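## Example record

The block below lists the input lines for one assembly entry, exactly as stored, with component labels intact.
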Amino acid sequence: GAVVSQHPSWVICKSGTSVKIECRSLDFQATTMFWYRQFPKQSLMLMATSNEGSKATYEQGVEKDKFLINHASLTLSTLTVTSAHPEDSSFYICSATRQAANYGYTFGSGTRLTVV
Amino acid sequence: RKEVEQDPGPFNVPEGATVAFNCTYSNSASQSFFWYRQDCRKEPKLLMSVYSSGNEDGRFTAQLNRASQYISLLIRDSKLSDSATYLCVVTPPGANNLFFGTGTRLTVIP
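Predicted structure tokens for the full assembly:
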């Protein structure tokens, strides 16, 4: 089945530094990648949608200059949290799909970010 | 109003019990519906899609009522391994992203 590899699975960083999270689709071409954030006891909230080769579309309230998304190839998308602050501590998870009817969505295993 | 609303629970049920979760969605033109399962600190995993005609997969039955904008999940003969958070998920019209409910926490007790 379709697999999306996400890493790191967890990261602790100092306030003010940047963190890059990678998602790779291992056995299919991900034309669209979604990035979600989940705070404790809350639902997954869509941050942005990226289509390969295009600029990401950010949801309202998500700062595009803070959360940099790159989707330069059909198998790799990255999310960089720039100048991280403690309030950015969360569970970040990607989801990939292919442009085909009923293809479905495959999630990465998530990255738990803690900013200290 | 949230796109998807669920009762967060928690539901604590004994092994073997039958439990039902409900969910409502706000956009009547929503096009696809799913139930996902999420274990603690893990990614969501697709449990089943939900069709208007209703569908069943073993002990799990999903129903969709478009008129009431309501989705349900029934779990029969609960197992300890069913303990998880169940997420109601909807695809909005004209888009291919997913809207997640906050999830309903289920704990099956021995």
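The interface with chain A takes residues 4, 8, 41-46, 87, 96-103 of chain B (CB under 8 Å). Chain B has a mean pLDDT of 92.
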